[in-house]
Amino acid sequence: MKQKGPTLLSKDGTKSVLAALLSILIGLLVGGVIIVITGLATPTLGISGVWDGIRLVLLGIFSTGRDAAGALTFGFNSTNLGNMLFRATPLILTGLSVAVAYKTGLFNIGAPGQYLMGTAASLMLALGIPTETVPAALVWVIAFLGGILAGTLWGCIPGLVKAFLNINEVLACIMTNWIAANLVTWMFDGSNFRNLVENTKSGYIYKTTYNGVATAKLGLDKIFPGSQVNGGIIIAIVIAILMYILMSKTTLGYQLKACGANRHAARYAGIADKRNIVLSMAIAGGLSGAGAALYYLSGNTEFFWSTYQTLPATGFNGIPVALLASSHPIGVIFTGCFMSMLDIVGLQLTNLTAYNEYITDVIIATIVYLSAFSLVIKMLISGHGKRKNAAAPAAPAEKKAAAPEEKSASAGEGPQSAKGGNEA
Predict the structure, then answer these.
(1) What is the pLDDT of residues 100-138, one digit of tens each?
(2) What is the distance between the alpha carbons of residues 92 and 241, in angstroms, rounded to a whole number?
(3) Domains of the chain listed by start with CATH number
(4) What's the CA gap between 94 and 123, in Å, rounded?
(5) What single string gives the DSSP state of each residue in 104-148?
């Protein structure tokens, strides 16, 4: 009898998507509850303010402001959508950084430090190479590759100490994060890259357009006029697809995942585990560096050079992006856009209502907390599917049990009839 293949619900990919959607739904519900409680407790908001807040959380990306009567209006907002794609670019790449390392059994909490090193290298190259002698497009390519290389080298450090000294990569990453923060501050302190033209911005580095270097728009400014979007989002999506191919369709990807599943078994099978651990962290670091390079090479962003007291949130935000996508490179594209959308929604809440944008941070935190329990949610989904289909295999089992009895009975009748024939 032909056996049925796995149902759609029983597939691991389906369970991952359902777990992510459930986490998002619960996070939005929590945000809605906070909006309701805050609105009812604040006289200036009231019921109408609560309704506006809920609509902005769900549809804020399409908000176009308020009409003459003061009512919220919605439609195609090219500025919001374009800015969402722009902000999603570094999130996709830092999410990929965490996801790739996680697939190989490593937790890359060092993305902020790698992001900082990529920022410093790309800005120094973009602003330091004179475009009077070198074409601006070539300077952009050099700066982008320099950012990737800086992140790669910084990612190698925790990989090396993990591979050869067996020091936990989380501890190593935390230390390299703060070393990077102080190192970047030291490199920019007193340099010629500080914005001394605008007296109020001496704590910032010049935009790359100061040297005529900026990421090409590739026609996206025509689709999303008034936004910061550029070709960086296309590059990020291409990199995500390439990482999917690397991890799923190549021998190297198989070896990296084998080391993550069981380092000692991989070594027994002839796979160079130490090399692959270092290589995994190097790739992760390069992805974080690429995210920083694409963000600051856009030409419309400024970098605050005194970073020794803080670490870039974009590096840490790559963790929830990867968790929500179950570390799937293609899923990271969508979760990165979703997290970016929540940032835009937070700004809409602040600009159009009396609510604080930190409500969206609560939503993100709830989603992150639940995405960390995605395995538990997937197990619950699997248990539901098993209970639903528990009665289905009973009939074939009974049929199989009956078949041997019929066969033995017919086998017994054969000799008896033959014997009876002989006796006759």
Answers:
(1) 999 888 999 999 999 999 999 999 999 999 999 999 999
(2) 11
(3) 8-76+354-388 (no CATH), 85-335 (1.10.3470)
(4) 18
(5) TT---TTHHHHHHHHHHHHHHHHHHS-TTTS-HHHHHHHHHHHHH
Rounded distance between C-alpha atoms, residue 106 and residue 246, angstroms: 17
Task: Calculate the alpha carbon distances from 395 to 19, 391, 401, 407, 411 in Å.
Answer: 32, 8, 10, 19, 25
Compute the residue count for the chain: 424
Helix axes 313-324, 111-128, angle to 10 degrees: 130
Helix (H) or strand (E) run with residue 214 in it:
none
Q: Is the separation of the CB atoms in 204 and 303 below 8 Å?
A: yes
What 3-state DSSP class applies to 6?
coil
Helix or strand (DSSP H, E) at 215: none
Global confidence as pTM: 0.85
**Radius of gyration over every alpha carbon of the chain, rounded to an integer in angstroms:** 28
Residue 418's pLDDT is 42
For 7, the token pair is 């149902």
Q: Could you tell me which residues come within 8 angstroms of residue 276 by beta carbon, excluding any fewer than 6 positions away? A: 104, 255, 256, 259, 266
pLDDT digits (tens, 9 = 90+) for 248-276: 999 999 999 998 888 888 888 888 889 99
Confidence of residue 409 (pLDDT cuts 50, 70, 90): very low
For residue 222, pLDDT over 80 is answered with: yes
**8 A C-beta contact, residue 144 and residue 293:** yes
Identify the residue whose tokens are 């993100």: 364
How far apart are alpha carbons 27 and 374 in whole angstroms?
13
Cα dist from 91 to 22, 174, 215, 230, 231, whole Å: 21, 20, 17, 15, 15
Which amino acid is located at 286 in the chain?
G
Structure tokens at 236: 């990020």
Phi, psi of 331 (to 5 degrees): -60, -30
DSSP structure class, residue 66: E
Q: What is the pLDDT of residues 48-104, one digit of tens each?
A: 888 988 898 888 899 988 888 888 999 999 999 999 999 999 999 999 999 999 988
Judge contact between 184 and 178, C-beta under 8 A.
no
Q: Which two tokens stand for residue 3?
A: 């056996």
